[in-house]
C-alpha cells in the first residue's frame, strides 16, 4: 500500500514534466516571435529577452500541465481497472488521489511566485530590453521602410549607410502643447545612452524649423529624447499590474494618502467658497479636474488591491484544476489521452474562466471586493471535493 502513492507520484511527474516543458517552449516561442515581429528585434536582443520570458511562459503552462497530467494518469488507471483493483483490496482511492493533490498544491505555490515574477521582474526587463534597443530597432526599420515613427519622434531618410542616415528629416513633437520641431539634415546618427535613459540624435549640415520662429542653419546639432518617448513605451513600473507583491503595501499607502489629500483640498476649497459666498467657484474647471484626479486615484487603488488575490487565485488554479480533473478522469474510465483531458477541461472552460474574468473586472472597477476573484476557484474546489467524495464512496 505504501508503494501506491510513490507509483502515482512518479507517473504524474513524468507526464507533467513532458507536458510543461513542451507548453513552456511553445509559449516562449510565441512571445519571442511576437516581440521580434512587433518591435523588429534582432537575434542578440531576442537572446537577452529569453530569461525574462520564461516565468510568463511557465505561468501559462503550469495549470494546463497539471490538469493534463492528472487526467491522463488517472484516466489510464481507471480505464485499465487499476482503481477497481485497489478498491477490491480494501484500499481507499484517496491513497491514489492525495499525491496529485499534494503535487498540485506545491505547484500552486510555485505558480503564485512565478506569476509575481512574470508581471514585475519579467515584464519590466522585457520592456527595458526593447527600450534600450531602440536605436537598433530604428536603424532596422529605416533600412527596410525608410521611416520610423514613435509617439513623440519620427524619422524619414533617403537611405542608410552603416550608422549614417542620409538626407534625414526628423520631427520632434513638443511637450505641453509646444510646437513640433522639424530638422532636415545632410546626415544624422542615433546613439542610445542607457545610463541617462536618453536617445541622442546627432544631425549635421541642416536646417531646423519651428513654426512661428526663425528657421536657422547649423553645422552640428544634438537633440536628446527620453527612451520611453522614443520607443513609444510608457513607464509601467508603477502600473498596478506590474508591481511586485512585496511592494503592494507601499503603493496602497501612497494611493490612500493621495486620496485623503485630494479630499482635504476639496473640502478646504468648498468651505472657503461657501464662507466667502463665492458659490460660482464651485462650478469652475478646477472641480472637474480635481474630481477626475480623485477618480483616477480611487481606480488605481482598486486595481492594486485586486492584484494580490488575483495572483494567488491564478496560482491556485493548478490545485483547483486537479481537484476537478483527477476524480472526473476516474469516473469517466477512459484511457484515451485527449478524451479524458478535454472532458475535464470543458467544465473548467465554461465555469472557471468566465467567473475569473467577471471577478477581476468587477474588483478592478471597485464594484465588488477584491476577494471575489476567488469565486471561480471556490466553485471548482467545491465541485472537485464532491467528485472526490463520490469516487471514494462509490
Question: How would you concisely characterize the structure shown here?
Answer:
With 394 residues, this protein is of the alpha+beta class. Helix content is 66%, strand content 13%.
Q: Please identify the structural class as seen in this structure.
A: alpha+beta
Inertia-based shape: flat
The H/E string reads: HHHHHEEEEEEEEHHHHHH
What is the number of helices?
Answer: 11
What proportion of the residues is helical, as a percent range?
A: 55-70%
Supply database-style keywords.
394 residues; alpha+beta; 3 domains; eight-stranded antiparallel beta sheet
Task: Provide an overview of this structure.
- The protein has 394 residues and is an alpha+beta fold.
- It contains 11 helices and 8 strands.
- The protein folds into 3 domains: 217 residues, no CATH class; 81 residues, no CATH class; 64 residues.
- Strands 1, 2, 3, 4, 5, 6, 7 and 8 form an 8-stranded antiparallel β-sheet that branches.
- Helix 4 packs across helix 9, helix 8 runs antiparallel to helix 10 and helix 10 runs antiparallel to helix 11.
- The model has no long low-confidence stretch (mean pLDDT 86).
Detail the topology: elements first, then pairings.
Blueprint: H1 3-39, H2 43-79, H3 82-88, H4 94-132, H5 134-145, E1 147-149, E2 153-156, E3 159-161, E4 164-166, E5 169-172, E6 181-193, E7 198-209, E8 216-226, H6 227-231, H7 248-276, H8 285-315, H9 317-332, H10 337-365, H11 375-393
Antiparallel strand pairs: 1-2, 2-5, 3-4, 4-6, 5-6, 6-7, 7-8
Helix pairs in contact: 1-2, 1-4, 2-4, 2-9, 2-10, 4-8, 4-9, 7-8, 8-10, 9-10, 9-11, 10-11
Amino acid at each position: 500500500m505504501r508503494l501506491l502513492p510513490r507509483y502515482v507520484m512518479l507517473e504524474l511527474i513524468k507526464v507533467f514534466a513532458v507536458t510543461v516543458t513542451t507548453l513552456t517552449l511553445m509559449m516562449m516561442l510565441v512571445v519571442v516571435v511576437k516581440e521580434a515581429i512587433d518591435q523588429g528585434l534582432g537575434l542578440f536582443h531576442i537572446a537577452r529577452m529569453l530569461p525574462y520570458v520564461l516565468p510568463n511562459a511557465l505561468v501559462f503552462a503550469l495549470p494546463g500541465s497539471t490538469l493534463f497530467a492528472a487526467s491522463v494518469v488517472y484516466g489510464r488507471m481507471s480505464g485499465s481497472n487499476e482503481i477497481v483493483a485497489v478498491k477490491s483490496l480494501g484500499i481507499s482511492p484517496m491513497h491514489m488521489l492525495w499525491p496529485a493533490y499534494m503535487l498540485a498544491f506545491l505547484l500552486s505555490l510555485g505558480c503564485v511566485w512565478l506569476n509575481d515574477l512574470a508581471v514585475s521582474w519579467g515584464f519590466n526587463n522585457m520592456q527595458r530590453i526593447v527600450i534600450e534597443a531602440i536605436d537598433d530597432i530604428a536603424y532596422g526599420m529605416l533600412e527596410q521602410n525608410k521611416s520610423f515613427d514613435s509617439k513623440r519622434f519620427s524619422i524619414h531618410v533617403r537611405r542608410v549607410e552603416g550608422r549614417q542616415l542620409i538626407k534625414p528629416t526628423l520631427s520632434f513633437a513638443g511637450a505641453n502643447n509646444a510646437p513640433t520641431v522639424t530638422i532636415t539634415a545632410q546626415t544624422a546618427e542615433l546613439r542610445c545612452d542607457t545610463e541617462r535613459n536618453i536617445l541622442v540624435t546627432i544631425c549635421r549640415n541642416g536646417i531646423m524649423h519651428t513654426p512661428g520662429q526663425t528657421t536657422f542653419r547649423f553645422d552640428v546639432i544634438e537633440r536628446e529624447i527620453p527612451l520611453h518617448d522614443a520607443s513609444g513605451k510608457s513607464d509601467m513600473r508603477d502600473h498596478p499590474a506590474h508591481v511586485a507583491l512585496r511592494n503592494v503595501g507601499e503603493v496602497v499607502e501612497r494611493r490612500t494618502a493621495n486620496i485623503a489629500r485630494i479630499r482635504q483640498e476639496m473640502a478646504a476649497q468648498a468651505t472657503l467658497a461657501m464662507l466667502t459666498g463665492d458659490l460660482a467657484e464651485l462650478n469652475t474647471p478646477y472641480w472637474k479636474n480635481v474630481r477626475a484626479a480623485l477618480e483616477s486615484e480611487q481606480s488605481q487603488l482598486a486595481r492594486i488591491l485586486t492584484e494580490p488575490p488575483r495572483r494567488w487565485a491564478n496560482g491556485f488554479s493548478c490545485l483547483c484544476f486537479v481537484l476537478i480533473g483527477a476524480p472526473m478522469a476516474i469516473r469517466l474510465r477512459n484511457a484515451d489521452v485527449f478524451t479524458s483531458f478535454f472532458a475535464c477541461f470543458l467544465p473548467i472552460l465554461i465555469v472557471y474562466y468566465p467567473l475569473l474574468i467577471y471577478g477581476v473586472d468587477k474588483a478592478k472597477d471597485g464594484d465588488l471586493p477584491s476577494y471575489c476573484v476567488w469565486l471561480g476557484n471556490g466553485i471548482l474546489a467545491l465541485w472537485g471535493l464532491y467528485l472526490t467524495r463520490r469516487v471514494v464512496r462509490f
